[in-house]
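Progress report, Aim 2. The chain analyzed during this reporting quarter is listed below.
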Amino acid sequence: MTVLEQGTITIHTENIFPIIKKSLYTDHEVFFRELVSNGVDAISKLKTIARSGEYSGETGEPEIIVEVDKDSKTLSITDNGIGLTADEIKKYINQVAFSSAEEFIQKYQSNAENAIIGHFGLGFYSSFMVAKQVEIDTLSYQEGAQAVHWTCDGSPQFKLEDSNRTQRGTTITLTLMDDELEYLEASRIRQLVKTYCDFMPVSIKMDGETLN
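Predicted structure tokens for the chain:
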């Protein structure tokens, strides 16, 4: 792999990660809803672009694939949506916290849990409540796009490198903390889908079975 960039996520305070881990989300399981919602958004954006004529490639059957690997303690969520370029990862993932988000957190910390999600692009970062490392492997729909792989261990440090992915879309892989291994159980995933994702307009599959 060619390392494209190593750097520090643009944040206004080192405390943003502990805030995300402890204060914003009292209920750790919302990370699943956030990641699946992001995948559904990526798929709907691809449909919009295809309808507008900007994308003439094959869109395929829209789906979210959930996979667990108990040996490596990983949970991955894959969509076949729009994908991300390196520049988009830098924009949407690395420049995570804005001063307005910080002010918002300070003002509404007691009930910021749901209000913050979606407003400041922090939904993705809910992953770090349950994961000690998060990876994004993605290939944009754009013609000639280079697939990229982003890795972060929950500190402000990240690594962005070339990926040899050939399939359009995005895979988010979480290496779970030892006290969050319940999310490797198929029954727990089914419960999360039923609670948060049952009526989402895209098939959510695991082991070849549609869960929603």
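The CA atoms of residues 27 and 113 lie 9 Å apart. Residues 97-101, 112-120 have pLDDT under 50 and may be disordered. These observations will guide the mutagenesis work planned for the next reporting period.
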